[in-house]
Amino acid sequence: MNTSSRRKTGVVAVALAITAGLAIATPVAASASTTATGAVRSATGETGWLRLGHFSPDTKAVDVRVTALSGGSVVLDLADVAYGDISPYQALGEGKYTITMIPADSDDWSKVAISDTVTISPAKATTVAAYGPTATLQLRAFPDDLTSPSAGNARIRVIQASTLTPAVDVQTSTGLAIAKNARPGSATAYTEVPAGVWNLKLSGAAVSGAADVTVAAGSVNTLFVLDNASGGLTILPILDSAATPVTPVGGVQTGGGWLSTHAPTTTGSLGTVGRHAV
């Protein structure tokens, strides 16, 4: 993905967040699993962290621009962000920013598909997700709680971004609830669970799915409920924060899944988004 630095006056809108309940369950063994990848470790001083994800299944790829409301400078550009993509975390100064999306490769920022504002707070991380059908596309900001779990445990939450059903239940193969009646655009609270492989079953109105997810000890993870190519439900696990012996310079282990095996292409920019098949 190409990145650049440009200037543009932002468009003001309102960012929202919503939460739902989460229950503790116990992981069970599995022969194959998906491991949550990519992380931010911490943020300090006047700096906060922002990442962006595209979770609207019938919305084509978009270009994304993040603009500071104070001064109107463009601080981030993302190109060709497609369904299931999530960017690395990017360090941003405290303040308000406009997030604008246009159809990929149009290069006409007057033809806005959607825009919204987000507030970046010192030492806090935020995920902004585009979700819902194209006709009712929404942006929502979710605060990311990167508090470390106790020894041997992980912390998880569920963000519901499926368009196939008005509500989703997520439970283990033994029937223990992870999320219940989760509405589109909602996030559960984080909870601690034993590290290991989780066999998860997803169910909604006339639609279902299953996913095996691995969560590592010391990690903080978000499990996105998405539509898959076969018309069912799936989970995209993304690592929010991971235990490391030494916190990297700048206090961050940035990334979507792509950064677990690749380095960013441009220092100081958002770089390439993590691309995931769904």
From TrEMBL:
Residues 49-171, 177-245 form the DUF4397 domain. Residues 257-278 are annotated as: Disordered. It holds the Pfam family DUF4397. Residues 1-25 form the signal peptide. Keywords: Signal. The keyword Ion transport does not apply. It comes from the Bacteria. The keyword Nucleus does not apply. This is DUF4397 domain-containing protein.
